[in-house]
Amino acid sequence: MDNFQHPVPGKLTTAIVICCYSDKRWDILNKAIAAAARQVPAADEIVVIVDHNPALALRLRAKRFETPLRIVENIHPPGLSGARNTGISVSRGEVILFLDDDAVSDQDLLATLVRQLEDPSVLGAVSAIRPLWETDRPSWFPDEFLWTLGCTYRGLHPGPVRNLIGASMCIRRSVFDHTGCFDSGLGRTAKALPLGCEETELCIRATKALPHGRFVFEPSSGSDHAIPADRATWKYFLHRCWAEGLSKASLSLMAGSGEALASEKTYMTRTLPQGVMRGFADVLLGQPSGLLRVVALGAGLAATAAGFALGRTRAALKRPFTSVPARALEPVE
Q1: Which residue spans traverse the membrane (predicted)?
Q2: Model's pTM, two decimal places?
Q3: Residue 126: which of 153, 98, 103 has the closest Cα?
């Protein structure tokens, strides 16, 4: 169904792209779709991309949604990057809001981010992404490492940022026209180690191609990002840190260490030391969980650094950059 609305003169047309892959996320996916449909003002189109799961696509097509939307199957390699690239090719909005299938957006999210893009120098914007814990939040989990859960972390300040966070981000279509789309060699897949950094690589590539442009963080609106019980564990935490190190190693070879690690240097020299001081201060105030957070800060840094060290030795042997130019993506009806 073609539900694209007729554009209003002077108004940026908008598309919401939600990528999904698993039947296990059916309930939260429906909440994410419902929240996207409740945006005020409404998006010009909503597209749900199903990543190589025909049964899920069939189930979605059989469901009656209150708002017209399109269900499209990923035509690119499996993974989040391929699904997003399909979303770019089938949508028509001048601005694309990418949402994870487990991110439930505020009603004013789209309007808030589009307002940022009314400035022609802004290439994209990211909202606040809040953790929605399905179990009690672990007392040891530090705010500085919320990025391991795809959420806004302590130390990220409003204004210009190097890169967006994928769970709730808005990007101009013209960015893809100039720089190509997401690199499918970096995006997550359902079965592989959760490598990422595809948003970071795209943003670095975009600012090189469009040096007068910038990306911004606007926290006045946002999304609640579901955190299941199996992600509230030490195992997942360390696994995700390790994977981030591997991803940053690949990224540093592709984009250069300067751009790839610029934000990480500030994070290591300012954000993490401040987190350690806060943890010890909490211990002095009679809160033993502060010491656990200090341990988590050190363990997370060590796991990330180990992944990076290993990744640097192997990344050169991996397949080369595989971004798909936007002009090569044929529309799918």
Answers
A1: 290-310
A2: 0.88
A3: 98
3-state SS of the chain is CCCCCCCCCCCCCEEEEEEECCHHHHHHHHHHHHHHHCCCCCCCEEEEEECCCHHHHHHHHHCCCCCCCEEEECCCCCCHHHHHHHHHHHCCCCEEEEEECCEEECCCHHHHHHHHHCCCCEEEEEEEEEEEECCCCCCCCCHHHHHHHCCCCCCCCCEEECCCCCCEEEEEHHHHHHHCCCECCCCCCCCCCCCCCHHHHHHHHHHHHCCCCEEEEEEEEEEEEEECHHHCCHHHHHHHHHHHHHHHHHHHHHHCHHHHHHHHHHHHHHHHHHHHHHHHHHHHCCCCHHHHHHHHHHHHHHHHHHHHHHHHHHHHHCCCCCECCHHHCCCCC
Position of tokens 């990007």? 171
CA-CA distances (angstroms) from residue 288 to 138, 143, 285, 307? 13, 16, 9, 29
Strand pairing category for 168-172 and 122-133: antiparallel
| Cβ-count burial 177-196 (b if 16+ within 10 Å, e if not) | ebbbbbbbbbbbbeeeebbb
Fill in the amino acid letter for 222.
Answer: G
